[in-house]
C-alpha cells in the first residue's frame, strides 16, 4: 500500500491512503499522525523511514525562519523530533509512550554549539554509512539569515530502538534557503 504524508505548521501532520496506481487519494482515508497542541502548533516537514519492525515519523517542530529579525525564545526554534509505530498508519508514539497527536515527540536533534534550529530533514539508508539524517541549520558563526542556512548530516544509531544522532558532520557542503 502507498501512503502520502502531508500537512504543515499549524494544523498537524496527516497521512492518506493512495489508490493503485498512486495518482490519487482514497476518499475519507485521512488520519492525523502528529499535532502540537501548545503554542503555535508548529509541526511540519514529515518524513517516514522504515527501520526494523517500526515506521519512524521524523518531522520539524518549532519556529523555522527569520532568526535574523526575530529570534524565538530558547527551545522554541526548529528542532527534529521522531515518533514511531509498528503499523505505520496511526498510533505514532514517542519514547515515553505519548501519542504524537497529543504533543508527543522525542527530540532527535536540537540546537547545540554553533548548530541552531536544525530542521527540514530527511532520512535515507546510505549503502556505506547506514541510516543518515540530513537537514538544514543555521551556523551561528556565519549568520542567522534564512539565506545563510547550511546543510548538515548525521549518522543515526537505532541500537536502542530509537534513532540517536552520531558522528555529526556539519561541514558546510551546500546552502539551502
From TrEMBL:
InterPro entries: GH43_arabinanases, Glyco_hydro_43, Glyco_hydro_beta-prop_sf
GO BP: any one term: carbohydrate metabolic process
Keyword terms, alphabetized: Glycosidase, Hydrolase
Protein name (record): Endo-1,5-alpha-L-arabinanase A
Pfam families: Glyco_hydro_43 (PF04616)
Family label: Belongs to the glycosyl hydrolase 43 family.
Pathway membership: Glycan metabolism; L-arabinan degradation
PANTHER family found in the cross-reference section: ARABINAN ENDO-1,5-ALPHA-L-ARABINOSIDASE, ARABINAN ENDO-1,5-ALPHA-L-ARABINOSIDASE A-RELATED
GO molecular function: hydrolase activity, hydrolyzing O-glycosyl compounds
Organism superkingdom: Eukaryota
Coiled coil stretches, renumbered: none
Amino acid at each position: 500500500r502507498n501512503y502520502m504524508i502531508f500537512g504543515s505548521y499549524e494544523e498537524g501532520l496527516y497521512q492518506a491512503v493512495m489508490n493503485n496506481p498512486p495518482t490519487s487519494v482514497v476518499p475519507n482515508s485521512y488520519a492525523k499522525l502528529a499535532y502540537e497542541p501548545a503554542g503555535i502548533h508548529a509541526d511540519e516537514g514529515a518524513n517516514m523511514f522504515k527501520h526494523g519492525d517500526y515506521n519512524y515519523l521524523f518531522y520539524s517542530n518549532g519556529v523555522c525562519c527569520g532568526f535574523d529579525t526575530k529570534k524565538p525564545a530558547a527551545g522554541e526554534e526548529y528542532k527534529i523530533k521522531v515518533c514511531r509505530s509498528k503499523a505505520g498508519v496511526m498510533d505514532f508514539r514517542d519514547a515515553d509512550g505519548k501519542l504524537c497527536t497529543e504533543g508527543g515527540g522525542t527530540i532527535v536533534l536540537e540546537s547545540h554549539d554553533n548548530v541552531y534550529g536544525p530542521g527540514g530533514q530527511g532520512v535515507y539508508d546510505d549503502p556505506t554509512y547506514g541510516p543518515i539524517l540530513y537537514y538544514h541549520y543555521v551556523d551561528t558563526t556565519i549568520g542567522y539569515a534564512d539565506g545563510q542556512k547550511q546543510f548538515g548530516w548525521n549518522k543515526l544509531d537505532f541500537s536502542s530502538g530509537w534513532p540517536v544522532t552520531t558522528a555529526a558532520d556539519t561541514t558546510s557542503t551546500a546552502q539551502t534557503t
